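Before relying on records like the one below, remember that each one covers exactly one chain. Contacts with other chains, cofactors or solvent are not represented anywhere in the record.
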Amino acid sequence: MTDYREILRLGSQNYSQRSIAQAAGCSRNTVEKVLRTASAKGVQWPLENDVSNRDLEELLFPEKYRNASMYTEPDYPYIHQELAKPGVTMALLWEEYCRKCHEAGETPYMSTQFGDKYRRWARVTKATMRIQHKPGDAIQVDWAGDTLPVYDPVTGEPSPAYLFVAVLPCSCYTYAEACEDMKTENWLSCHVHAFQYFGGVTRLLIPDNCKTATTANTRYETVLNRSYQELAEYYGTAVVPARVRKPQDKSRVEASVRFAETWIIAALRDRKFFSIREVNEAIAEKLEELNSRPFQRMVGTRRSAYLEEEKQYMLPLPAVPFETAVWSVAKVPNDYLISDGRNKYSVPYDLIGEKVDIRVTKATVEVFYHGSRVASHRRLQTIQREPLVKLEHMPLAHQKYLAYNAEDFSRWAMSMGPMTEKVVQHFLTSGAAPEQGYKACASLTKLGERYGRERLENACGRILAYSTTPSVRNISSLLKNGQNRPVKAAPPDNPNDSNRFGITRGASYFKKGGDR
């Protein structure tokens, strides 16, 4: 039998046909025919060790076996193309192959031979991408173990930059991006950027079991992070986390992570970066080199494999990119303020002590209670000392406190009387600013509501009669003890009233020398 393996090996090394014919012990016409047919059918060196000369002859010159065999050869390129489509399996294609053979009066191979012959053809022609992974079916994502140092431009202190990697396992097309941390917000943003880089979404999304992806992944159930689930629903993909301690579930991304660590992190080891933006610019350059690098054992590159084999099967992107949102749960404290991690925002005061869901995006902070939105704020982009509070979220007493001003207090005091007006003016002018007297003025208005205008005016008059520095405490004491009421004059004595209370001795009785 012709040594097809030797012909292909020497042909890959650019030997002349005469030299190949001498080494393989065949004619130059045979060498020329073998090389031409192999090139047309995509058979290239190197080949797997278990690919025999008989396998090559059956593939390159099937007409030699067509008359000798009673079975009909399948259309292997058609099978390879159909396997790429969602839901198509070898069993389905074998049944269709059998149906066509029976209709044509031919004899089909059994299912085992059908599968073996296809896999042999795929292995010889390097068309192995779809054997384990369907194009456009899944994206595998992970964080690289190594980091890149980013130096502070002022102090020179280094801080780590973490590398996010996303891989399409069919074509091995890779996306990478550096982040300052591995928190949920960066995790979601990297996914959005990866989808945009790929130009589409896959049916499945396969992450590791990090907290930004899953909150629980047990033998019986998988609980996804709410923010991650929201992203998946927006893009119409399904999150299927890898099993715990089973890295083979995402072997492609594990291999691509190691590849990225070599051709991105290690390749940039001698460069010094002073911002995440600089790091990502350098990563983008290395990423283009990585995706354009030829495969060692397959024809083409990651990019060409993606464009030719996988892009057409990707799901379309939404018209608007996903707005990254981070969910959390918090118990409303007594000051009815919740936090986004940097600043505080108000919620309705009647939710004090209740647990609420907080949804934080780049521009907004939303609060939900039992699925209903109860508060919404614009998100502050810088750290502020004062919280962002809405008036309707405050109790009535707190709302009144915010509405206090000197003009209103003065107007109220004039309506109560001149003494009250003097006391209020003292409160507003005794401090460095009128606001320092607002509390005393507010307490005085409450005393007026409780005891009435007349009693408050009398109390203020009595206090001002003996002190130039009135206080709310003294005025309140007078009102509580009733000392602010005017003293009634005693009626004059009437001599005719001497016997009004019974038998009494009058003044004449005690006069000296008077009759007894």
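The mean pLDDT is 83.
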